[in-house]
């Protein structure tokens, strides 16, 4: 059978009325930019792309050279496409409207240009995460940050490209979650797993255990029960994985199940979590839900959060349906003495 390329897949989706021609073209432009990023990542030291850029981003985080390079590649590719009103990036303070001299469209694109960038210099998988929203009509000519503040369930597409042993694209337009593998010789993405399904139950969790002492009591109690294994209340042994690249941890969960957690912790109580709602939690949440999993703050569905800011952070629990529900039970306010911690959205 002929392999299904991404181009053919998108044309078929358009033919069935599931996406518009504009969205098809926008996704193609984003994926082309990801292919360029993949080449830059793959060159490593030979391309002079490793190490720090000597700059910081809006979050006060040190930027790697590849953070900046990837951001520029995505901005450049999308400036002239004609399908966008504006882009917003984890690496930029505010949204960037498409320059006046270029044609505009009515989509908004958000991205984390290089997620997991602390892993670049040690040759561990990193990736690009993206999310597409529709721009409210009043914002098309003069898009501002506020036009991006839409809940995750309003996303018209979301995806990530993982730069690992293989470069893969995982995409949803609201009709299932599908994986494509880059054929490096041909420069084409080929559909390699249609309709990914996350097993409902799992015995594998992903969390940065070094934060344990900073967690709130509910989180402490949940993970203690996982660690107690078959002798504890869960009655089974759990395995743990933590890659510290969300794309890689989520990719494993989409492939074989598991729960991924980045909860609130009191290292900096003003932050509601480490991960960003608009660039990480929402797109990953849609991909996971479209694969039969759940995405939660522990207390509420991530995709229902009404965003307050472009760089807002949230606690994240996502993956196998049964296990996310098990985690959520620890956060239910049955015990009034365990009230919500400051900064944690209820
Ligand atoms: P980044 O977007 O600056 O790379 O940060 C997000 C990353 C996620 O990919 C990963 O899950 C998490 O931060 C790792 O955090 P930690 O360093 O606490 O393990
Ligand atoms: Mg990130």
Brief sketch in words of this structure:
The chain is α+β, with helices and mostly antiparallel strands and 346 residues long. Helices cover 27% and strands 23% of the residues.
Unique ligands: 2,5-anhydro-1,6-di-O-phosphono-D-mannitol, magnesium ion
Instruction: Please tell me how large the radius of gyration is.
Output: 20 Å
Multimerization status: single chain
CATH second-level architecture of the largest domain: 2-Layer Sandwich
What is the total number of structural domains?
A: 2
Cofactor: Mg(2+)
Catalytic activity: beta-D-fructose 1,6-bisphosphate + H2O = beta-D-fructose 6-phosphate + phosphate
InterPro entries: FBPase_C_dom, FBPase_class-1, FBPase_N, FBPtase
Protein name: Fructose-1,6-bisphosphatase class 1
List the helices and strands and how they pair.
Blueprint: H1 6-15, H2 21-43, E1 52-56, E2 62-64, H3 65-79, E3 84-89, E4 96-97, E5 107-115, E6 126-134, E7 157-163, E8 167-172, E9 177-183, E10 188-193, E11 204-206, H4 217-227, E12 239-240, H5 246-256, E13 259-262, E14 275-276, H6 277-290, E15 294-296, E16 313-314, E17 316-319, H7 321-331
Parallel strand pairs: 3-5, 11-12, 11-13
Antiparallel strand pairs: 1-2, 3-4, 5-6, 6-7, 7-8, 8-9, 9-10, 13-17, 14-16, 15-17
Bound molecules: 2,5-anhydro-1,6-di-O-phosphono-D-mannitol and magnesium ion.
């Amino acid at each position: 059978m002929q392999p299904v390329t991404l181009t053919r897949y998108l044309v078929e989706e358009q033919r069935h009325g599931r996406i518009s021609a504009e969205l098809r073209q926008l996704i193609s432009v984003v994926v082309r930019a990801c292919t360029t990023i993949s080449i830059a990542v793959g060159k490593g030291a030979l391309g002079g792309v490793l190490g720090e850029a000597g700059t910081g981003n809006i979050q006060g985080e040190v930027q790697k050279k590849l953070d900046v390079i990837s951001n520029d590649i995505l901005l450049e590719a999308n400036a002239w496409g004609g399908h966008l009103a504006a882009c917003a990036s984890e690496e930029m303070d505010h949204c960037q409207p498409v320059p006046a001299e270029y044609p505009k469209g009515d989509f908004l694109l958000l991205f984390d240009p290089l997620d997991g960038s602390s892993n670049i210099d040690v040759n561990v998988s990193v990736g690009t995460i993206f999310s597409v929203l529709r721009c409210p009509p009043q914002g098309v000519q003069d898009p501002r940050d506020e036009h991006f503040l839409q809940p995750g369930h309003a996303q018209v597409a979301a995806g990530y490209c993982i730069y690992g042993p293989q470069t893969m694209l995982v995409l949803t337009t609201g009709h299932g979650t599908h994986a494509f593998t880059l054929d490096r010789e041909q420069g084409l993405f080929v559909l390699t797993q249609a309709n990914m399904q996350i097993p409902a139950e799992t015995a594998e969790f992903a969390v940065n255990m070094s934060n344990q002492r900073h967690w709130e009591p509910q989180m402490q109690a949940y993970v203690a029960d996982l660690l107690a294994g078959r002798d504890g209340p869960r009655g089974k042994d759990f395995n743990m994985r933590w890659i510290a690249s969300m794309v890689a941890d989520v990719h494993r969960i989409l492939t074989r199940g598991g729960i991924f957690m980045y909860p609130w912790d009191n290292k900096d109580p003003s932050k509601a979590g480490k991960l960003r709602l608009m660039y990480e939690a929402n797109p990953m949440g849609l991909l996971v839900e479209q694969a039969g999993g759940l995405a939660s703050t522990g207390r509420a569905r991530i995709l229902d959060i009404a965003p307050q800011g472009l760089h807002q952070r949230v606690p994240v629990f996502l993956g196998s349906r049964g296990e996310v529900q098990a985690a959520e039970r620890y956060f239910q306010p049955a015990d009034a003495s365990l009230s919500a911690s400051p900064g944690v959205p209820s």
